[in-house]
Amino acid sequence: MSARAPRRSVRVRRARSAVMVGLTVAAAVLATLPLIFILALLIKQGASSLNWAFFTGMPKPVGETGGGMANAMAGTAMLIGIAAAIGLPVGIGAGLYLAEHRNGRLAWVVRFLSDVLNGLPSIVVGIFAWQFLVRPVKQFSALAGGIALAVMMIPLVTRATEEMIKLVPDSLREAALALGYPRWRTSLTVVLRTALPGIVTGALVAIARIAGETAPLLFTAFGNQFWSTSLTQPISALPLQIFSYAISPYEEWHSLAWAGALVLLALVLVISLIARFVTRSRFGHGHD
Amino acid sequence: MATTEPRVLTTVSGVASAGDAPPARPMVAVRSLDAYFGANRAVKDVSLEFPEGQVTAIIGPSGCGKSTLLRCINRMHETVSLARVEGEVFLDGRDIYARDVNPIEVRKQIGMVFQRPTPFPTMSIRDNVIAGFRAAGRGAPSRAEQFEIAEWALQRAALWDEVKDRLHESALALSGGQQQRLCIARALATRPRVLLLDEPTASLDPISTQKVEELVYELRGDITIVIVTHNMQQAARVSDHTAFMLLGDLVEMAPTSRMFTSPGDERTEAYITGRFG
């Protein structure tokens, strides 16, 4: 009897363990299921409208079949470019400051505000940009849209940069200082360079995140049915075009919206894959 | 609370030490040095001298302030937040804590190697070696000059033969012992007058340790070396002079051979015979 009692308790523990492992596996599957469903739905609804003309053509008036989103894709590329041009230097600089002055009061304030900004609803960022960038000049513009996206991007890049720089061992910083490197040179050529792959990953994740943002663009970039590359004119963007097609009453436009959503998802997927690749190559050589 | 005044012996007086070093003038002289971390006084009123071209070991149990003392010699102590230094350190007769002295200039003249190897992971082996030389800002050295300096420094660090065919590879591809010798080469490339070694073999295997010790032995004469170690055998093997520290005080400093045969202070004797530590 004394020999059987522990055996039973082992069986009970094994069963309990199996149940818990099963539950976590189920949770893991549930967590990824939405993406698979979304992808399947987008392919089913949108793939039929995906053709060469979709990538090269312009939107057509109601009633005409076909038409593409070339202007929206160019617009999205341009908006991402503006956002990155502003958001990356500011975000990386702020992250470097936070990591190098960890305990300062200003660092605490900046870190806190950047977390708040990160949690700010994107529509609020859109209204803010409209108030300060659109209303005074009475003109929707690509620039206003890009700045609104940059505002979304900065806290993401800041915190990613800070975390990556914190991973650089202090011993490297000390080694550089002991060689007679000034502080600025230590930060730039040793610390920042060592953390660079991680920072690039953070930047790509931030770009993937803002690529699909719609709300900050509603009152800033506004959307445009025509080709535009002007900074001071309204500009189209994939999410905006999807939005306006999706709420339209026309079947033809609905399927174009599905196709646009598919392209947008593919874009985000590709950027995320590149981000993954960059992270991996970081540990690619030698032993640490 | 120093119970006895630290005895400061600056020159070898009659007693033969490793290599029969002749009397030498002090390259580094420390005068009444106090080092603090916030309110904690880690080094207490220490005065001692490091003779030119010789090897001085600083020994003592963990937390005795030996590394902190070492880091005061190239003004690295102050790079830690809340750390500060009082007193004077003379490098070749000049007070490096004088107000008009730039700590960066001090560090360019004094090389330092740490407990763990610290190769820059983004740089190749060669770029690591000349990193400090570049920072020293002696104009922009040409490619040929850079190669020459890298070879010279790697030769001196006894690493050249092992890496000469892969100078462009990542420094992380080297073994721990090779990385440490690379760091020594990097420190030597700027042709410093003083080399500070902060437990340079603490993270190395016995064979790598032996190579580093041989290297220290080779480098004496040309360069003044201060080595911090908690390994007494190592101090006995490589140094001309040994300083013993305890709880922030310098207990005594003497030629190494005398230190390990007839120490002047009973605390030194207790430590080197293994009664505490």
Keywords:
heterodimer, A: 288 residues, mainly alpha, MetI-like fold, 2 domains, 11 helices, 75% helix, disordered C terminus, B: 277 residues, alpha/beta, Rossmann fold, 6-stranded mixed β-sheet, 4-stranded antiparallel β-sheet, 10 helices, 10 strands, 24% strand, disordered N terminus
How far apart are the termini of chain B? Answer: 19 Å
- The secondary structure category of chain B is alpha/beta
Considering the protein shown, what is the CATH homologous superfamily of the largest domain in chain A? Answer: MetI-like
Helix- and strand-based class of chain A?
mainly alpha
Number of helices of chain A: 11
In the CATH hierarchy, what is the class of the largest domain in chain A?
Answer: Mainly Alpha
Strand order of the biggest β-sheet of chain B? 6-7-8-3-9-10
The CATH topology of the domain at 26-120 and 193-272 in chain B, please?
Answer: Rossmann fold
Outline the structure in words.
With 288 residues, chain A is mostly helical. Chain A has 2 domains: 4-49; 53-282, Orthogonal Bundle (MetI-like fold), CATH 1.10.3720.10. Chain A has 11 helices and no strands. In chain A, helix 3 runs parallel beside helix 6 (142-166), helix 5 (122-134) crosses helix 6 and helix 8 (183-211) packs antiparallel against helix 11 (251-282). The longest helix of chain A has 43 residues, at 4-46. Chain A is globular. Chain B is α/β, with parallel strands linked by helices. Chain B has a domain at 26-120 and 193-272: 3-Layer(aba) Sandwich (Rossmann fold). In chain B, 33% of the residues lie in helices and 24% in strands. Chain B contains 10 helices and 10 strands. A 6-stranded mixed β-sheet of chain B has the order 6-7-8-3-9-10, sandwiched between helices. In chain B, strands 2-1-4-5 form a 4-stranded antiparallel β-sheet, with helices on one face. Chain B starts with 25 loop residues before the first strand and ends in a 5-residue tail after the last helix. Chain A binds chain B through residues 103, 169, 171-172, 174-182, 185, 190, 193-194, 196, 285-288, and chain B through 74, 76, 79, 81, 104-105, 107-108, 111-112, 114, 116, 118, 120-122, 131-132, 135-136, 170, 172-174, 183, 186-187, 190.
